[in-house]
Design brief:
CATH superfamily of the largest domain in chain A: Response regulator
Structural class of chain A: alpha/beta
Radius of gyration of chain A: 25 Å
Oligomer: homodimer
CATH class of the largest domain in chain A: Alpha Beta
Number of strands of chain A: 12
Number of domains of chain A: 3
Largest sheet of chain A: 6 strands, parallel
Helix content of chain A: 40-55%
Strand order of the largest sheet of chain A: 2-1-3-4-5-11
Number of helices of chain A: 13
Shape of chain A: elongated
Strand content of chain A: 15-25%
CATH topology of the largest domain in chain A: Rossmann fold
Largest interface: A-B, 42 and 42 residues
CATH architecture of the largest domain in chain A: 3-Layer(aba) Sandwich
Chain lengths: ~350, ~350
DNA sequence: CTGAAAGCGCTAACAA
DNA sequence: TTGTTAGCGCTTTCAG
C-alpha cells in the first residue's frame, strides 16, 4: 500500500557491510564488484525491499537528456497537429525531469527531407527518439544507427518489422478498416461502396492506408460478396478537379443511398462537396478527428468517424523514453495497439 | 523548448544580493521578508526566468503525504474493479513522489458504512482524497470538513453541486443516455423500447443512473414520439426471478425485433438470459466494459456497449492531487467530462 | 528580518 | 575491488 519507502542506499550499504559507493555500483552495473559483495548486496536489497529514490538520483546525475521526435510536417488542423499536441504533453512530462524534447519535421512526400531530418537528429546526439516512419528503407538504416549508439527509440503511428524498438504506439490498421466497413454497412443492403482515395503524385511512396483498406475490403467480401467496389481518386490540391470527379460519381450511381468511405483523414473533402451540392442521401464514414471532419459529423454529412488518440500515442512514446532514461524501466507492453474510437454526432463533442 | 532550466535558487540569491534562505522565504511566503528584498527577489526571478527544481525540493522537504480513495466495495469483474485498477496506476505515479495511496471501501447500499469510511479517512489525517459520492448529504458534510482542514479532494464518477473540489472526472451522464438511445434506435422503425432496470431494495438511495435515463427518454420522445417505453425490473440476486420477468416480457412483446436497453453496467443479465433461451431477434445496448458484457458483445447478444475509462478517471484524480501537493498546480480543467466510447464486436478487443 | 549551515538520497570522481 | 567525498538544488533549523 505504501510506496514512500524509507530505506535508503545507506541502509543497504550498512546491512551489507559495504559502502554506498559499492551499492551504487551493483545498482547500475557500473565498475567491477566482487561476486561476493554483489550477491550480498542484491540479497539485502531484496530483504529490505529497497527502492531507489529517483529524485535524488536525477538530482545527482544532472545529465542533459534530449529527446527528438521525427514526424511529418503539417498545416493547422491536419492529422499530425494532434500528434504535435501529444508531443507537447510529453514535453511537459519529460521537462519535469529536466529532459528536453524537440520536434524535427520532414516532408512526407520527399525522401531527401526525411534523410535530412534523420541526420540532423543523429548529429545532435539524441538521448532518445520518437519516430513516425514513412520511408521504410531509410528508417531501417536510421534505427540501426540508433541501436549502435544504444539510443532508445519508439515508433508511433506505424512501425517496421524489425525488433530493436523500445515500444510502439499506434492503431491496429487492418482492424480499423474492418471496423470501418461494419459501421458503414451497418447491416443494411449495400450493393456498391465508393472508396475515395487520395491521388498521390509521386510514385515509390508507400500508401500508409493500404492495410486499412485491405481490412475494409475483406469485411465487404466476407459480408457482402455481391457488393461492388468503386475507387475514386481525389486531388488534394485541386478543388475543382475534386468536384468534377465527384459530380461524375453521383451521376453514375443512382442508388437511393450512396455508401462512401475514405481510409485517411481527408473525408472532409467529400463532406464539403456534399454540403455545397446539398446532397443528403449518403452514408459516409471516415477517419480521424480533424476539426473539419468534426464539423461534417455535426452537420450530418459524415455519419461516423473512427478516431484514435494520436496525441496520447505521442505522449506515451515520450513518457516511455523518459522513464527508460530516468529509471531504466521498459514499457509493460512493447506493442501498444490503441483503441479505435467510434464517433458520431452525439459523442464527438466529448472527444479530446 | 528546453525545460531543464539551469538557473538555481543560488543564482537568484546572488543576483538579488541576498541569501538563498531569503529567496526560499519569498518563494513560499514563509516567514517575514522586508518589502524591499521581496520585490528585488521577485524581479530577479522574473528576469532570470527562474523555475524551481521540484525534485530537489521534494528531496529536501521529505514530507509524508497520503492520499485516500473512497469508493464502493465490489466483487471481481464488477464496475468498480476498473476504478480500482486506475487507483493502482495512480498509486504508481504518486509513489514516485513518495506519496502513498490507499483505498477505503463502503457498501453503496448502506449509509452507515459510508459514514464510517469518511470518518476513518478524516481521522487518518489525509493529504488529499478522491471520492465517488453515492450519498449526497453525507458527502456534503464530509467535504466541508475537508475544506476546513484545507485538504484537497476530487470527485470521480459523479459529483455534487458544491464548489470546493479540486477537480472532477466522470462521464457526461445525460448525454450518455442520449447517445445510447441513438445507437439503440439507429435510424430504424422503433415502436417499443424495453428499459431494463435494477430493483433496489432499500429506499432513500438515489438511483445513480437517473440522469442517464432521462437523456435516453428525451432522445426517444424527440425522435420517436410514438414509441412506447416499457420498464422492467430485475432482481440482481435472484436469477430465477429475472428469468421469469424476462419470459413474461418476451411473451408480451411480439415485435420482430425487440429493443432492449440498460442504463447501468448489468446488461449481462439480459445477455445471459438471451444466450440461455437462445433468443436472437433483439437489439441490446448497455454500458460499461465488464468482462461479462464484453463476452456478450463478442457473442452477439449485445450489439453495443457505451464505455468510459473509469480507470483513467481514477488515475487522473490521483495525479491531480499529487501534482497539487508536490508542485501546487491545479488541473487545467476543473470539470473533466471524459469521452464516451462506443464498443461493438469489432473494436472491443482493442479497448483497455 | 536575514545568513549560515546541515542535510535529503544518490552519483561520480578520486584515492587507496 | 572498494571506501571516501564533494556536490546536485532546495528546505529548514538556528543564530544573530
Amino acid at each position: 500500500m505504501n510506496s514512500g519507502s524509507k530505506i535508503t542506499i545507506n541502509d543497504v550499504a550498512r546491512a551489507a557491510g559495504v559502502s554506498k559507493g559499492t551499492v551504487d555500483r551493483v545498482l547500475h552495473n557500473r565498475g567491477e564488484v566482487s561476486a561476493k559483495s554483489r550477491e550480498k548486496i542484491l540479497q539485502v536489497i531484496e530483504e529490505l525491499g529497497y527502492r531507489p529514490n529517483f529524485y535524488a538520483s536525477i538530482l545527482a546525475m544532472k545529465k542533459d537528456f534530449h529527446i527528438y521526435c521525427i514526424i511529418p510536417e503539417f498545416n493547422n488542423g491536419e492529422f499530425w497537429a494532434l500528434t504535435e499536441k501529444g508531443i507537447e504533453q510529453g514535453r511537459e512530462y519529460a521537462g519535469r525531469f529536466g529532459i528536453s524534447v524537440s520536434t524535427v519535421r520532414y516532408d512526407q512526400y520527399d525522401l531527401d527531407s526525411f534523410q535530412n531530418a534523420c541526420e540532423k537528429v543523429l548529429s545532435s546526439g539524441p538521448s532518445g527518439v520518437v519516430i513516425a516512419p514513412m520511408f521504410r528503407n531509410e528508417t531501417l538504416k536510421f534505427v540501426k544507427e540508433l541501436s549502435e549508439m544504444r539510443v532508445p527509440y519508439v515508433y508511433i503511428d506505424s512501425k517496421l518489422e524489425e525488433d530493436g524498438y523500445l515500444a510502439y504506439y499506434g492503431m491496429p490498421m487492418y482492424q480499423s478498416g474492418y471496423l470501418c466497413a461494419d459501421i458503414l454497412a451497418d447491416g443494411r443492403d449495400v450493393d456498391m461502396v465508393h472508396v475515395i482515395r487520395i491521388a498521390r503524385d509521386k510514385k515509390g511512396l508507400s500508401d500508409p492506408t493500404i492495410t486499412r483498406r485491405t481490412g475494409l475490403l475483406d469485411y465487404i467480401s466476407e459480408h457482402y460478396p455481391e457488393c461492388r467496389i468503386e475507387n475514386t481518386f481525389l486531388d488534394p490540391r485541386d478543388k475543382a478537379a475534386r468536384y468534377a470527379v465527384l459530380d461524375e460519381l453521383f451521376e453514375k450511381d443512382k442508388s437511393p443511398v450512396k455508401y462512401i468511405v475514405m481510409c485517411n483523414s481527408r473525408v472532409h473533402f467529400v463532406a464539403d462537396y456534399l454540403r455545397d451540392r446539398n446532397i443528403g442521401n449518403c452514408r459516409v464514414v471516415g477517419f480521424d478527428v480533424l476539426e473539419r471532419n468534426l464539423a461534417a459529423l455535426r452537420d450530418g454529412y459524415v455519419q461516423a468517424l473512427i478516431a484514435q488518440h494520436s496525441d496520447k500515442q505521442a505522449a506515451a512514446a515520450i513518457s516511455a523514453i523518459t522513464d527508460y532514461l530516468i529509471m531504466h524501466t521498459v514499457p509493460q507492453k512493447k506493442d501498444n495497439y490503441t483503441q479505435m474510437d467510434i464517433l458520431n454526432k452525439y459523442n464527438c463533442d466529448y472527444y479530446l
